[in-house]
Amino acid sequence: MKKLFGLILVLTFAVVLAACGNGNKSGSDDKKITVGASPAPHAEILEKAKPLLEKKGYELDIKTINDYTTPNKLLDKGEIDANYFQHTPYLNTEKKDKGYKIVSAGDVHLEPMAVYSKKYKSLKELPKGATVYVSNNPAEQGRFLKFFVDAGLIKIKKGVKIEDAKFSDITENKKDIKFNNKQSAEFLPKIYQNEDADAVIINSNFAIEQKLNPKKDSIAVESAKDNPYANLIAVKEGNQDDKKIKALIEVLQSKDIQDFINEKYNGAVIPAK
């Protein structure tokens, strides 16, 4: 009986120790923020935010991810606290297609998309039958088309909002422009450098990695005014009000970070607020 009682005491003590250990781990996790992010400018901006978050008592762990599918997978599985690589239209498409329970915690910056060409100096110079390479991201088809609608080269169906437009909504294509959307966004700068197309539309984060500046090197750049494509911090639904997420958003929307973005990227990236 004494042996049994002693064994119970030992087991009880072990359980208490384990519980204490888990409690400490939980407390540590509350002060650590793990974010999956594209290399540029997202991870660079997060690096600048690190010391600002440290002052608030938080450790920022940045996981650099080079594609547009992995960050939401990791977030949905709970392997990271947040991700930073996408805009609202893309997030909405991911949620619709894959059933993710993911929401925006706040906008941080805008990357003006641009059209690049080594052969022509404007969209209107593009020849009949020109080939334009764009990414295979269906959420951005309207964004691609807006360049050509604004230039008067194509028309889309009446009643279709430009941000919702698809290639199938084109009703008039004066120069019979061919849109090739079979490539992932990260490969587009190489297509541009190799002159494999008449023009290429490149996301600014990938352009920046290749030392391209949308304002200086492109033949057309989108306007920031009323632009719905601000890059955001995404979190699992229900976590947007967590203290550490609010601290992250507060820092990323601070004047310190806004000034950093303006100074470092010279218009290639601009603050969302």
From TrEMBL:
Q: Which GO terms describe its cellular component?
A: membrane
On whether ATP-binding is a keyword of this UniProt record, the answer is: no
Write out the annotated subcellular location. Membrane
Tell me which residues bear the S-diacylglycerol cysteine lipid modification. 20
Q: What is its main location?
A: membrane
Q: Which InterPro entries match?
A: Lipoprotein_NlpA
Q: Write out the entry's keywords from A to Z.
A: Lipoprotein, Membrane, Palmitate, Signal
| Pfam families assigned to the protein according to its UniProt record, in alphabetical order | Lipoprotein_9 (PF03180)
Membrane topology recorded in Swiss-Prot or TrEMBL: Lipid-anchor
Give a yes or no for keyword Cytoplasm in this entry.
Answer: no
The record's listing under PANTHER family reads: D-METHIONINE-BINDING LIPOPROTEIN METQ (PTHR30429), METHIONINE-BINDING LIPOPROTEIN METQ (PTHR30429:SF0)
> Of which family is this protein a member?
Belongs to the nlpA lipoprotein family.
The protein's name is: Lipoprotein
Q: What is the lineage of its organism?
A: Bacteria, Bacillati, Bacillota, Bacilli, Bacillales
